Amino acid sequence: MTTSVAGESRAQFSSKIGFILAAAGSAVGLGNIWGFPTQAASNGGGAFLLIYLFLVFLLGYPLLVAELTIGRYGQANPVKASGKIMPNGKAAVGRSFAVVGLITASCILSFYAILAGWLMGFFFSPLLEIVGLHDAAQWLESFSTGRNLLLTVLFMVATIYVVKNGVAEGIERWSTRLMPVLVVLFLVLIGYILTQPGAMDGLKMFLIPDFSEVNSGMIHSAMGQAFFSLSLGACTMMVYGSYLRKDADLPKTAAQVALIDTGIAFIAGLLILPAMFVAQNNGVQIFDDAGNLESSGDLVFGVLPAMFDTMGGAGLLVSIVFFALMVVAALTSSISLLEVPVSTASEELKMSREKSSWVIGGLITLLSVAIIFNFGWMFDAVIIVSTEYAQPILGLIFALLVGWVWRRDTVLTELREGSAEIESSLFWKVWPWYVRVVCPAMMIFVFFA
Ligand code: PHE
Fold first, then answer.
1. Is the pLDDT of residue 4 over 90?
2. Dihedrals φ, ψ of 296, to 5°?
3. Nearest-atom index, ligand 1, CA of 31
4. Which end of the chain has fewer CB atoms within 10 angstroms, the N or the C?
């Protein structure tokens, strides 16, 4: 569906629910299903959960509204939209921040595609095992450059395929197809795991807080996790906001997206922590010799597959469902990451969407290939720079722009489009000074504490 703005037609999500599923699809990803549960497990379980919830709603949510509002006001790619909120003559400043955001999104996608590739390998491997291709199945689960290259490229091609088809026909269509699949796969798995011996120990660890684990490092991790999970500071929510209908209520829509994202992270905790203890019950080691939990990568690619192996025939099936879930979650996030540079290239350089999807997607694939060949130092470096530095710093900058630079009456007019009475609401009494003062102060505090 398209609207006509000043003679130019711009793509739009065809419905509010389509938007919510796409934005929640971006938010719900490996961060929820893998990052959140494993971080909770190694950081005091329930205590991490509480601090995470606090940060999502008191820090992430207001910033999510800010990014969505910039995008919807701009009705353009993030670079142009960020320029539009600046005062006369200062557009270049806003544009440069968004360019950093665009590079951040591309870097996140480059490592995300590698991770998703491995997950695809673990998804296909039991299928090959079933048809008797034992060696190929083993190869897919082994760590080799050839396997990493093949699977990463496959995942990127799937991402490009969705994005090249556009907002309504590609992103929205696939998000609305895949998100329900994700929920069903989840429920099936939880139903199964919670009936296995050992599961209750995991539930206890997840739900009963151990406050002795609370420290500044853990709060910092929870903040990073909240930013990553809500897809903030990478212009993804901005670009999706630009395709959102003007009659959508921004604070409410953002709240729905944040709730779905957090709900799924919570449910993932109900799955992964019990699964770890089921694994332990079945004789798989989950703590190293020093008594620390295995690293998050070892948990997903070592502990869980080893547990599936102990379950016989049912284990094969459970494994297929589990990795399918991960791949689906990754795909609805990767398309939002690719959309950031693709929308900018096609609008600013007047390229067709099809061409810019292949060109930009191809360049990001090349970056992934570079990481694969220099895995030892580059993989962690790209993750740390893009998610631990770039995302929170850009989130802070967007908060400062919305709080201090963007004219308050323009912000109000934009929010009013979707909720006529907003001016007299509690939201409007709190949010403007909250993003102006409280969010930046909280972030700076956590960053330097
Ligand atoms: N939110 C996604 C996840 O949890 C990752 C992501 C980060 C997507 C930043 C877009 C932008 O996996």
1. no
2. -60, -35
3. 4
4. C
Burial 157-178 (b: 16+ CB within 10 A, else e): ebbbebbbbbbbebbbbbbbeb
Structure tokens, 120: 């695809």
Predicted confidence band of residue 113 (pLDDT cuts 50, 70, 90): very high
Say what the pLDDT of residue 299 is: 86
Render pLDDT for 421-438 as a digit per residue (tens, 0 to 9).
Answer: 999 999 999 999 999 999
Cβ(239) – ligand 1 distance below 6 Å: no
Minimum CA distance residue for ligand 1 atom 11:
231
**Sign of the Cα pseudo-torsion (321, 275, 311, 292, in order):** positive
Among candidate residues 389, 400, 287, 372, the one with its CA nearest the CA of residue 42:
287
CA distances from 444 to 210, 393, 395 (A): 26, 9, 11
Question: What is the per-residue pLDDT across 206-255, written as a single tens digit (0 to 9) for each?
Answer: 999 989 989 998 999 999 999 999 999 999 999 999 999 999 999 999 99
CA of 88 to the centre of ligand 1 (A): 33
Cβ pair 26, 237 in contact under 8 A = yes
Cα dist. 322→37, 213, 265 in Å? Answer: 14, 30, 15
Using CA of residue 374, residue 375, residue 380, residue 383, what is the dihedral sign?
A: positive
DSSP letter for each residue of 414-443: HHHTT-TTGGGSHHHHHHHHIIIIIHHHHH
pLDDT, tens digit, 9 for 90 and up, residues 162-208 = 999 999 999 999 999 998 988 888 888 898 899 999 999 999 999 99
Tell me what pLDDT residue 136 has: 96
Q: Residue 31: CB within 6 Å of ligand 1?
A: yes
CA distances from 76 to 8, 68, 335 (A): 11, 12, 18
Please check whether residue 232 is in contact with residue 100, taking contact to mean a CB–CB distance below 8 angstroms.
Answer: no
| Residue 272 and residue 41 in contact, taking contact as beta carbons nearer than 8 Å | yes
310-321: per-residue pLDDT in tens?
A: 888 888 888 998
Confidence of residue 5 (pLDDT cuts 50, 70, 90): very low
Distance in Å, CA 131 to ligand 1 centroid: 35
Helix, strand, or coil here: 313? Answer: helix
The pair of structure tokens assigned to 104 is: 């951040």
Q: Are 68 and 254 in contact (CB under 8 A)?
A: yes
CB atoms within 10 A of CB 411: 21
Confidence of residue 339 (pLDDT cuts 50, 70, 90): very high
Give residue 128 CA to ligand 1 midpoint distance, Å: 30
